Amino acid sequence: MPRFSIVVPSHGVAGRLPLALDSVLAQSFGDFEVITVCDAPDAPAADVAAGYAGRDSRVTTVHSPPSDGLAGARNTGLRAAAGDHVLFLDGDDELAPGALAELAARLEAVGETDVLYFEHERTPWWEGRPANPAAAALAGTPAGAFSPDRAPQLTGVTLPAWSAAYRRAFLVEEELTFPRGHFTDIGFGGPAALRAERVAVLRTVVVRHHLRRQGNRLNLPGEHHTELLDQCELVLTRAAERGVPAERLGPLFEQLFAAVLRTAAHPARLPAGRRAFFRRAGLLYRRHRPAGYRAPGGSLGVQHRLLASGSYAAFRALRAANRRAARAAALLPRPRGLRTRLRYAAELRLPMDENLVVYCAYWGRGYACNPAAIHAKARELAPHLRAVFLVEPDAVGSMPQDVEYAVIGSRRYWQVLARAKYLVNNANFADAVVKRPGSVHLQTQHGTPLKKMGADQSTYPVVAAATGSIGRLLARVDRWDYNLTSNRHSTQMWESAFPGAHETLEYGYPRNDVYCTASAEDVARVRKELGVPEGRKALLYAPTHRDYATGFASGLDLAEFCEAIGDEYVVLLRAHYFYDRGPGRRGGGRIIDVTGHRSSEDVCLAADALITDYSSIMFDYANLDRPIVVYADDWDVYRETRGVYFDLMASPPGRVARTPAELAALFRDGTWADERAAALRAAFRERFCQFDDGRAAERVVRRVLLGEPPESIPPVIPLAQRVPAPAAATLVRS
Asked: Could you tell me the pTM of the whole model?
């Protein structure tokens, strides 16, 4: 039997779960078990937990459906626990170094206790000093183990469940579990404190609680705030049943109603039903007010008296002025130019167009990427929707003739942004764009992250300087309702890079559908358009952008490379889209510049193999199951200056070359496409081609634009059952 059982719920924190598990497994005190509670065996966090379980037998995984909430997850973990004492650790928090050793020593010193309370640290997600709110709650308690009667202020309702260690036999004997619903820590911690006979305190930080950028979910608006009253009533009823003396009941009552009044005085938390909430809270107040109870002084005391008398009108008037000022500030749009601001504000007051979809790709570079693929599928599945693409003036000429567009910055641009029900982008809309209530923002992304992104860039000075304000970036993230991902790796990394309240859609990238749906005729057509000579193998060379370099500079002399590998090859050069220099050349030589070609998907279809450095195109191209060669001449510099999420050299999609000579040798001796290269590619595809099965656009349109329920969305076709578009070289051989 282990000394500690540590229950770790993991819903929605797959990207940060390693932080929690690493903090536990790194403890100097090793007599414990970790019970990770995942939504289902195929959930994002389950992959992470399985990796840890495979490396350490102390880690086990159990499952609790998301519909059971946090309470259900903790109860499931509690039923699986076998340790002497149980700790609860949120999946995005961590144990402080040496914490378990401190707990074990304290328990040894004070003897058997039902509950051992300890301090915790609340760490701001970005900037600011950590706080220790538990220190005040635990101050003044007796030195050793003691009866709860000796510390009446220690009620259990102001400390989260993860700020205490519970004797498992005590929880079982008293049948203590987490009540369903929200604010479940109150409904668990209060009864635990009421039933405990011996408790103790450890004045040491054990848990580091990482505050989320979007704040506590409990503070978001919604009807769930009425459940606070359910939990308060549960605790107060238990106290009445046990005949708790007035000296203990008074602090419990005051702490519970301090939470109730914070909610009642915060109108944003209760969009509707505020009067009913106040009325019910007043009934609870009068029913459970301890005999002789004296309300606190000051403004809080006034609120107590208004609640006791049921004077909702007076209570509402107390907060009305602040509410009006906050609402006015929140609704003020801020595009540049007074005339534009006024026009945009006027458009925002008009009814929303329920059938209008606004698309944008690569900051207005034209009809491309995931937005274009979604638009094409929406024409088929949702023809009633009207679509408008946002484009820069120099991209107007590249727009398909049958696609409606608006030039960025124009009056029409602000008009459609203000009125559209749906907004779809693979980057971000302008800072000034207002997220209207009821509108739906879909972020499609435009690649799988190898390099650090979003908030994760902040510790890399070169990148952070080019990115600009991380705060402004994350304000744009707050507008997202959905974020698209093409593999489980991206799901986890986007959680870290773009923390927000949006929902992740593991549907695949719509732009990659073509890799499973294109025919041999499509491949031949594209090669002809690009000027690829018949009978030649086309090598796509697609290097990425260097944040530490100025302008585009290929790390490879392509003329020398072509000379070294022989006449059977031609090279398709596609520079990063930052260096799109126009239509490029159609052909006529060994090097064909396809940087300006509208579709990167077409270019990939035409290529028999890919040569890249660290570009995310490798993840998309892997869907074609064609050879990939990594030319990593400056990997160490790139990794240190840009930051990466995994070691590409340890898990490449194919052969790796560090010098031009090594690269040329791979193509001269055929190892670029040998069995070893195929094995590396197969492992890479297994990891990064999980959801790109040819039906991503359909899933997105049905879920986001048509509002179909998740259970009706077509499932992802397993990787082994997909048939990638044929390569031209394969057609020639066959």
From this structure: 0.70
